Every structure is written in C-alpha cells, then in structure tokens.
Design the sequence.
C-alpha cells in the first residue's frame, strides 16, 4: 500500500512528472524564443507561472454556468495526467505494473484531460469558451480514432500483447519498432497525435489566443488555471515517454544506457518543438481531414505492413 502511494504521488507519478514536465516546458519555451530571435523567459518560468497562479492570483468564478463543474474539471484533468504517468513510467523503469491491458487503460486515461477541458469550457457559460470546447471536441473525434489504431498496430507488433511492460520487453529482446517500415509510419502518426493532445501548433485551435482569447480556458484564473497549466506540464513529459515506450524500446538506467535514454527523450521533445515552430495553426476542418484521411491511411498501411512482417 505504501509503495503504491509512493509510486502515485512521488516517483514516478505526480511529483516527479510535474517537475520534469515543467522543466521540459521551460526548455521548449526557450527554444521557441531562440527560433524567433528572442531571448525568451528563464527555463524555470513554468514553475514561476504555476506558483503565482496557485498562491497569488485570485480564482474568479464565472457569473453564469455551473461553478462546481467549472472547478472540478481541472482536478479531473490532473488526475488523468498523473494516473497515466504512473502506468507509463513504471514499465519504462523496469517495474511490471502487474496486469494485462494497461495499454488500453492508458488510452482512456489520456483522454480525460481533453474531455475535462471541454466540460470546464461548457460549464463556464462563456460563448468564446464554448467555441473553444466545440473545436476541442471535433479535434478529439479525429485524432483519438487515429490514436487507437496506432495502439492496435503496436499490439500487433508486440505479438498481440496488451501489456506495456511486454511491449518494451519485445523490443529489447529484438529490435525497436521504429527500425521497421511499419514502425516509422506509426511513429509519424503518433507524433502528430501527441502534438494534438498537447494542444500545440498546428493543433491549438481550441485555445487560439489570437482568435478566441484562450478559448476553452478564457474564464479560468488563479488556482484552477494553475491546475490546467500543471496538467499540460505533466503531459509534456508523459506523452514523449509513451512514444519512447511504443517505438524506441523504452529506457535502461544503467551505464551508458542512461545517456542514450536521455537522448531519446531530447530527440522527441525537439521534434515536437520543431513541428510547433514550423507550421501555422490549422482550421478545425483541415485538422479533422488531416487525421481522418491522411493519418488513418498512414496507420492502416502500417498495420498491413506489420501483418506482412515489415
């Protein structure tokens, strides 16, 4: 019982994921600034933002809408991010979670933050928030179908195993999935899916500060908005870790493998930042067509290739 609580709240769960995710978010902002020929904020700026919102700024509740639902939505978002972080990080660290089908559980847990954003937006009673929630809902419908197909492809490549620990084991005893033709196609589709899950350009139409002033989050402030920021920081670490688990054989924290594991994480984060800084924001219809047509086609071809042994 004590070990389970430690895993969830300290390492590799809530606290560890929040700290590392905040650092990654700071590095991402620094790289983005350099790409735009700016100095940018300090790497620790995400932590300053979080504690300022949590401890200093007032939480203002919307005059219209459901206040309880509005406040509970960020709490559920943090729960989804932290619970998925535990299930992903345990097998990455060589600890068997102990049950089959955890890859399916992770899929549902990673959906909770996005659904929470939508519920909070609709509960605020703000028309701009409703527009942001509507956009987020349409985006979820498109990329989640692609994401479940990617998981199906991974399960097929992992000898029909639905265990995250077993998926890593298959790659470490053989070859990493990204070293195959089907693995490359699945990897490309997965990168765009996590870009959408993180709400980053070109899939940030749900927030779109220049169009709808923050969209789904326009009414959030103070500690409630701090929880939303925290969720995004945690996902900024959890989702790249999932990519490493699915395609790069996980990590090994012994000897020179520590450096190689760190390079895997850095490579995925740099790729996310590169996509973010080299693409304009897509329209909602464009994003939906991108996933429902092109990314699904990529994944279906990958599944066929995987079935044929490529």
Sequence:
């Amino acid at each position: 019982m004590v070990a389970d609580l430690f895993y969830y709240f300290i390492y590799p769960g809530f606290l560890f994921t929040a700290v590392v995710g905040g650092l990654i978010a700071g590095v991402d902002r620094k790289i983005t600034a350099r790409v735009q020929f700016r100095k940018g904020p300090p790497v620790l700026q995400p932590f300053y933002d979080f504690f300022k919102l949590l401890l200093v700024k007032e939480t203002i509740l919307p005059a219209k809408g459901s206040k309880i639902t509005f406040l509970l939505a960020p709490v559920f978002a943090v729960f989804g991010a932290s619970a998925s972080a535990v299930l992903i990080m345990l097998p990455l660290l060589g600890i068997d979670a102990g049950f089959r089908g955890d890859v399916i559980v992770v899929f549902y847990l990673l959906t909770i933050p996005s659904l929470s954003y939508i519920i909070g937006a609709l509960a605020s009673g703000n028309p701009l928030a409703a527009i942001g929630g509507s956009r987020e809902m349409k985006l979820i419908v498109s990329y989640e179908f692609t994401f479940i197909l990617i998981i199906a492809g991974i399960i097929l490549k992992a000898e029909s195993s639905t265990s995250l620990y077993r998926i890593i084991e298959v790659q470490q005893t053989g070859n990493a999935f990204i070293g195959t033709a089907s693995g490359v196609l699945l990897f490309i589709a997965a990168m765009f899916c996590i870009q959408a899950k993180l709400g980053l350009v070109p899939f940030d139409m749900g927030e779109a500060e220049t169009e709808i002033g923050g969209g789904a989050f326009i009414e959030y402030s103070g500690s409630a908005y701090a929880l939303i920021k925290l969720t995004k920081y945690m996902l900024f670490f959890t989702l790249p870790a999932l990519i490493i688990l699915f395609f790069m054989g996980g990590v090994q924290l012994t000897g020179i493998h520590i450096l190689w594991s760190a390079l895997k994480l850095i490579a995925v984060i740099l790729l996310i930042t590169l996509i973010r800084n080299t693409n304009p924001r897509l329209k909602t219809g464009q994003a939906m067509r991108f996933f429902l047509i092109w990314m699904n086609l990529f994944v279906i071809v990958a599944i066929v290739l995987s079935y044929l042994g490529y």
Q: What stands out?
A: The radius of gyration is 19 Å. The longest helix spans residues 127-157. The chain has a mean pLDDT of 92. DSSP finds twelve helices and no strands in the chain.
